[in-house]
Amino acid sequence: MDHYLVRATIIPVIISYIVTKCNMTESEALDSFYNSITAADLANDETLLYGESPLYIFGLYLEEKEMLKVL
Q1: Cα(26)–Cα(16) distance, rounded to whole angstroms?
Q2: Which residues contact 46 (CB under 8 A, 6 or more apart)?
Q3: Quick check: 17 and 54 in contact, CB under 8 A?
Q4: Residue 10: phi, psi to the nearest 5?
Q5: Positive or negative CA dihedral for 17, 21, 24, 28?
Q6: Residue 68: which residues within 8 A CB-CB, separation 6 or more?
Q7: What is the CA radius of gyration of the chain?
Q8: 60: which residues sit within 8 A by CB, 6+ positions away?
Q9: Which residues have a Cβ under 8 Å from the Cβ of 29 and sit 6 or more positions away?
């Protein structure tokens, strides 16, 4: 399966996690995720992040957001 197809199937799952766990609307979750370093890493084929589970990637997103709160 091409990498873009893998991303197309896992991103909606990640967004649903963000909506549920972070109490955001779908629009807010999409905006927050697509403006994150995690999303940029997911888009970069060299990171191989597309091969990880949506839950793992969601965890990275949460870690990134926590790090930004500290700064």
Answers
A1: 8
A2: none
A3: yes
A4: -90, -25
A5: negative
A6: none
A7: 12
A8: 38, 41, 49
A9: 15, 18, 19, 22
The pLDDT tens digits of the residues spanning 40-52 come to 999 999 999 999 9
CA-CA distance, 57 to 42, in Å (whole number)? 8
pLDDT tens-digit map of 30-40 = 999 999 999 99
* Among 12, 6, 27, 15, residue whose Cα is nearest residue 61: 15
Distance CA 17, CA 31 (A): 14
**C-alpha–C-alpha distance, residues 13 and 33, integer Å:** 12
Overall pTM > 0.70: yes
| Whether the Cβ atoms of residue 10 and residue 50 lie closer than 8 Å to each other | yes
Helices (H), the chain: 3-22, 26-34, 37-43, 54-70
